[in-house]
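[step 3/7] fold_predict: job queued, chain A
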Amino acid sequence: MSMSDNDRPGAPGIAFERSLRTTRYLDPSQNWAPAQITSEIRRDPLLGTTGRLAHFVGFAPQPEDFAALAATTREICPFCPDRLEVVTPQLPPDVFGAGRLRRGQATLVPNLSPYDAFSAVTVICAEHFVPIGDWSPELLVDAISLARDYAAAIRAAGHALPYTLLSWNYMPPAASTQIHPHLQVIVTDEPGTNVTARIGAQREYLKRWGRPFFDDLVETERAVGERWVHDSEHVTVLTDFVSLSALSDVRIVFSDHQVLDTLDDAALGDFCAVMSRLLRALGETGVSSFNMSFFPATADAADGGRLHAVLTPRLSFSPALHATDIGALNLQLGEPYMARSPEELATSLRPAFRPPSAGAASGGS
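[step 4/7] structure written:
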């Protein structure tokens, strides 16, 4: 069975296509009575790629406590303040002047396992372990600002590299090799397959429909209401119709920016305030780990691109067995699957952005 949401409100270029599939079986828990389970194949409205919604029977994310692991790694951590100055490398002075870039508690240093010619690590804060619900907007603003500083210095030195990539692997299920919070920053002329495909698809959408894709997506998701989460002054929060994460992705779309480098303080502050509330809310749903990346467009707003960040929750399906959420289907066959629907996730996240009720206790005396 196949259906398309073509009659729903919103932009005509946005389609939420899904194909329902029914699996029939004899249920041993019901004395072998006939039963069935429905799954979906969904099509991404921008790229046209597919992903699957496959509800795991009785599935719920199991929160993981990394505090004990943090305690055992603190004494050998290269990013803690007493070792950061001694064991991390310095930036070349002909490009950056200072050996390290700093803002507040954040420090940017070269990556000793680089992904490109200009590849850096930003140590976000002095604290070795920060639980997912304890991130302040101020810490995030300082850390992300260093990516702008790093890219600006590279271009000022005469390197014509148009793309600044910033990613965050938070905790071991997200492939972090250090508990101490840090970001990956790459400035390059080769942004990779996925970024290039998204930039090209946004350009083609503008050419066909005469409007930026993400403007239409936000308008449509807001009208439909199923995956819309929150609007602030500079960003809109949505869950993805087709997500990479088994727990469903959150996409934060900037309304007025194309690249990370041009984010003004107001837009960056807005984004970080939203991120702080999102991370707290995701933690309350059982999420303990995530990947986050900024997806740049091009600096030319005329091509219809929009800067957006994707937050992908990560988990171990069975922590006791060390069973990760990456298997043959998504890693090798390139087919992501969701065990929790984006509609369910959006519903659970919206309360985090509601203003406190008038009758709420003030907490003071």
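[step 5/7] annotate
Residues 63-353 form a domain with the HIT family, subunit A fold (CATH 3.30.428.10).
The radius of gyration is 22 Å.
exit 0
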